[in-house]
Design brief:
Rossmann fold, binds zinc ion
Length: about 375
């Protein structure tokens, strides 16, 4: 575990520190994320409109599925889909057991204002709790298993209603905020769960819905139309600032935040705890990365970002951590075990197909960059 109490080298331009994977600093003290920063080139609104047109031509009951967490980004995507582009939308929310009251209010408001249909998706509650608990204890993390379950429910919902596209609120602001471990990998997750010998194979398979999916079979199913096409509108449109998006959803969707400036992930009550764990295990966490991204995009000065970052106190256990532990049948006594997780411990259990897929995607991105030059 990196000792975060000692002086840690931090970038002179952003807040990225020496614990960030593969980071290096130049003579001026600027980190490689800052010096390698590329200008964001959106794919273009015309391309997005063309995707929507193709979806409409399918004449399904719904043109698009919008996964709605009650957070700022997904609420904005729902606003765009319905109010700006006039799509027939089904909205869905996976209840991970940690949905905040604020998120539930925001979902209710968004549904009532747009008038779209909405479904809540659930896993078996007991199995979900047991699986989350095991993943937390064995891998110091909850977000990976939650992302896996959410994605499975999204794909299932789109398939059941024959919806041609899924619109994700993934924001370019969240780029670079991942941990070095491949935490969203089914093979790795199944290995950790089976190792604990507490689960029947059927329990795991039912929870995963598509237990044998890898990135190749996912792509194949999307290409052949068995799965919906996944679209990330933020990557097509001119870069809207976080503040501008906040103003729009507040005005148009009656969306509320928790009063903190630039707060993120307020849809999940476990987020501050998982962020604390990340910081302890890796020496950096989401907020540091997101603020750094905002500095690079000139949305915040370094001083402003630093002030906001310090208010977050990511190196302190959040006020509600016992509630989160309790909900997973854990106590304070389990904290040392959770924090003892060594980064990349299960990386050799990651699906070979997914590793190959990641390499191919990297090559594709490199080729695209060369074409743009
Ligand atoms: Zn930097």
């Amino acid at each position: 575990m990196p000792n975060i109490q000692t002086t840690v080298k931090t970038c002179s331009k952003c807040l990225i520190n020496q614990h960030y994977p593969k980071i290096h600093f130049d003579e001026q003290g600027q980190c490689s994320l800052c010096s390698d920063q590329k200008t964001f080139h959106p794919l273009g609104e015309e391309k997005l409109k063309a995707i929507f047109e193709t979806a409409r031509k399918k004449q399904a009951v719904y043109d698009a599925l919008v996964p709605l967490s009650g957070g700022k980004d997904s609420t904005y995507i729902l606003f765009l889909a319905v109010k700006v582009y006039g799509l027939k939308v089904l909205a869905m929310t996976y209840n991970n057991g940690f949905l905040s009251e604020l998120a539930k209010d925001n979902i209710r408001q968004a549904i009532s204002i747009t008038g779209v249909d909405h479904v809540f998706c659930f896993s078996d509650k007991q199995v979900q709790q047991k699986i989350y608990r095991e993943m937390l204890l064995a891998s110091g993390d909850l977000c990976g298993v939650c992302d896996i379950a959410t994605k499975a429910h999204i794909l299932k919902t789109a398939s059941e209603h024959a919806i041609p596209i899924i619109l994700y609120g993934t924001s370019p602001l969240e780029e670079d905020s991942f941990v070095p471990d491949t935490i969203q990998d089914l093979r790795r997750l199944k290995f950790i769960l089976r190792q604990s010998k507490q689960f029947k194979r059927r329990e795991i398979n039912d929870f995963l819905i598509f237990p044998r999916l890898n990135n190749f079979s996912l792509s194949y199913r999307k290409m052949t139309g068995r799965f919906a096409r996944e679209v990330r509108p933020f990557f097509y449109l001119d870069n809207q600032s976080d503040a501008a998006i906040g103003e729009i959803v507040n005005r148009e969707m009656n969306w509320k935040d928790d009063g903190r400036t630039y707060s993120r992930h307020l849809d999940c009550v476990a987020e501050p705890f998982t962020n604390y764990l990340r910081n302890q295990i890796y020496g950096y966490e989401r907020r540091r990365c997101q603020f750094s991204n905002m500095i690079r995009k000139n949305e915040l000065s370094r001083d402003e970002a630093l002030k906001l970052f310090e208010l977050d106190r990511v190196d302190h256990l959040p006020g509600n951590y016992r509630q989160i532990l309790q909900q997973l049948n854990c106590t304070d006594d389990d904290l040392p075990k959770i924090l003892a997780y060594q980064a990349m411990q299960f990386e050799n259990k990651v699906s070979r197909m997914n590793q190959l897929f990641a390499v191919l995607m990297q090559v594709k991105r490199k080729l695209r960059t060369l074409q743009h030059r």
